[in-house]
Amino acid sequence: MKVSTLLPNRWGLGVILSGLALLGACSYTHETIPEPACPSLPAAISYKTHVLPILQDDCYRCHDSQHYQTLALGVFNMENFNEVKYWSTPANGQNGQSWMMGNMLSQPGFKPMPYDGVHGPSACEIALIKAWIDAGALNN
């Protein structure tokens, strides 16, 4: 088949070539956008100053004394430091990861937190909580 039967005039060829040029210009290459760097962590992380406000803002809506007995929501009460400390200790059989961190990081074998996948701590806040746990999860 001749090109002249497909494109009866020069304008048709120009339109097709212009369209191809636009498609080439609109091509997309996948680039990962780096997450913003977290500010440096404090030298001494305090439960009351650094960790507790994160838990209050992001976790208490399900993990407080009102939801404590509701297994569907807050299996443990984060208002109680002793429970936070317990769930922050490494879990047996979970590669030394605490249940709290395993859940927050959505690691295999843990329940992803938050349940809705939206209203939880940021990556920087999770890093701060992890550093607090790694330092012994002190009630300071």
Cα distance spanning the termini:
83 Å
Strand percentage: under 5%
Rounded average pLDDT: 77
* Rg computed from alpha carbons, rounded to a whole number of angstroms: 26 Å
Poorly predicted residue ranges: none
What's the oligomerization state?
single chain
SS summary, helix count: 6
* Structure classification: mainly alpha
Report on the biggest sheet: none
Shape: elongated
Percent of residues in helices comes to 40-55%
Q: Which series of helices and strands comes N to C?
A: HHHHHH
The beta-strand count equals 0
Structure, explained:
- The chain is mainly α.
- The chain has a domain at 47-134.
- The protein is built from six helices and no strands.
- Helix 3 crosses helix 6 (123-134).
- The longest helix has 16 residues, at 10-25.
Give a summary of the structure in a few sentences:
The protein has six helices and no strands.
Present the secondary structure layout:
Blueprint: H1 3-6, H2 10-25, H3 47-58, H4 81-88, H5 99-104, H6 123-134
Helix pairs in contact: 3-6
